[in-house]
Amino acid sequence: MKAQVEASFQWIYVILAGGAMLVMFFFVLRSCTQTGGEQVSSSVLRSTGTVLSSSVWQEQTERNVTMPELSVICTAGTLTLSQGDAAFGLDNAPMFLSPELDGRTRLASKDLYLATTPTLRYGSVLYAISQQTQYYIFKDPALRHEKIAAVLGRSANVRYIDNVNQILATEDPIVIVRFDSLSDQAAAAQRTSGKAYWLTITATELQFYEKQASAFVPTGKAPVVGDLFTAGAAVSGRFSLYRCSRANIAGRMQKATAVYAERSTKLSSDSADACKPKQAAAASELVTMQALDPDAYIARALSSTVLSDAQRYLYENRCPVIA
Amino acid sequence: MKGQLQALEPIIITIVLGIIMVIGVVFYINISGSQSQQDKQEQAQQDELVLLARTSRLPELSCSEDVSGTNCIDLYKANALAKRLSDPKERAYYFTLFGASNITIEYVDLVNNKAVFVPLYSAAGGNRTRATRTYFTVYDPVERTTNFATLIIEREIR
């Protein structure tokens, strides 16, 4: 009888020790799964960021890629990809991204020039247009939507419409672009069911709206500085994303401009005598541009006649060109 | 004696099982550790390729519109960028593009018959680095000469 009781006690110890080991094993497994999940999120973001960043530097990118489900946000002035708690900053990459990326995403890069004619190629701006975000662009009589069409392309998620009735209620998120007019905005607010962004483009201004409750609320405005940026505003949808991307692009352009200025200054002393005055004029203009704020810089960079005149002269006289 | 051994039997079994489980956990951690090391190496190789592609297409380095051919670095741009990158503030901006690496351009000056090094960017700490090389042409816009060049990117090994 005593031996039987002792044996039962032994089994109680075994059960307790086994239970403790099981609990320990469970915690180890859980922490491993949690760490693994975080690593996967971080690795997915890193890979996506790498794909986007490397696509920026490839000229004439035009391809579809499969993206994981990601949100695009602007935190502390940095364009950021996020998935749950994990985030990946795109810092200075010149690109416009859809508010949310998922599934098939069209990557298209367009060349950006410091002055219109003749060309001073600066580099590329990348547009990541997610199939998940639906773009509805009102056709306007002046055909200004065609300029956006040239950048966005005619993919399945970009539709050109004549009236608000063509906006489907099931799409989410949705970006609606309208030229000059705010008409139909109230009706569009009623017809859309999920996240919706509205962009009004006038000759001089981009006005951003975001749907809150059952109406579109203005979120910010920015000057119109060229077709590539206007198309970028449509891709971004949100004012904060557009502003973040525009600051990135201006920052990159200003850094390149600083190098061009330094180079032109050196060339104005090293080149042949016939080349020196225009090299010096270009250097002076580039130095002035460096000191401007991002908005003023972009506007001047895209329209400077000093740069385009100097570039034309340098081409024609077989001098080293500005860029 | 036999009775005592029989009484201890469950405890011995538990201890043996515990040892097996501990060995299993240690084995699993080792395997996942070596896997993550392999992932890191693959990631580092991918980063190097991306960095090479980026550097070669950087508007601050690539040849002007009037020069035909790809994989071409403008010597005046390279010198201007190197001068700017000697400022720590500028280096901090370019850190997001180049990361912890050293980038150098090496070319042969055929006129003076000597090798010239242009140290472009330096941010790799530590002694252990791995170098990746790509072959380019370096163009002098004033002399209108083209020389064979090597773009050397050194990255830290962690």
How is this structure best described in words?
The complex is a heterodimer of chains A (323) and B (158). Chain A has 323 residues and is α/β, with parallel strands linked by helices. Chain A has eight helices and twelve strands. In chain A, strand 1 (62-75) and strand 2 (78-83) form a beta hairpin. In chain A, helix 2 (145-152) crosses helix 4 (227-236). Chain B is α+β, with helices and mostly antiparallel strands and 158 residues long. In chain B, a hairpin with a 4-residue loop joins strand 4 and strand 5. The longest helix of chain B has 56 residues, at 2-57. The radius of gyration of chain B is 28 Å and the shape is rod-shaped. In chain B, 22% of the residues are buried. The chains are: A alpha/beta (323), B alpha+beta (158). At the A-B interface, helix 1, strand 6 and helix 5 of A face helix 1, helix 2 and helix 3 of B.
The 3D shape of chain A can be described as: flat
Number of beta-strand segments of chain B: 5
* Poorly predicted spans of chain B: none
Task: Return Rg of chain B in Å.
Answer: 28 Å
Order of helices and strands of chain A: HEEEEEEEHEEHEEEHHHHH
Going by helix content, strand content and strand pairing, the class of chain A is alpha/beta
Largest sheet of chain B: 5 strands, mixed
Mean pLDDT of chain B: 83
How large a portion of the residues of chain B is in β-strands, by DSSP E? Answer: 25-35%
Look at the structure and give the mean pLDDT of chain A: 86
Please name the two chains that share the biggest interface, counting residues whose Cβ lies under 8 Å from a Cβ on the partner chain. A-B, 47 and 43 residues
The helix tally of chain B amounts to 3
**What is the share of helical residues of chain B?**
40-55%
Structural shape of chain B: rod-shaped
> Tell me about the biggest sheet of chain A?
6 strands, mixed
Helix run count of chain A: 8
Give the radius of gyration of chain A.
28 Å
Number of strands of chain A: 12
Distance between the termini of chain A: 99 Å
Unreliable stretches covering 5 or more consecutive residues of chain A = none
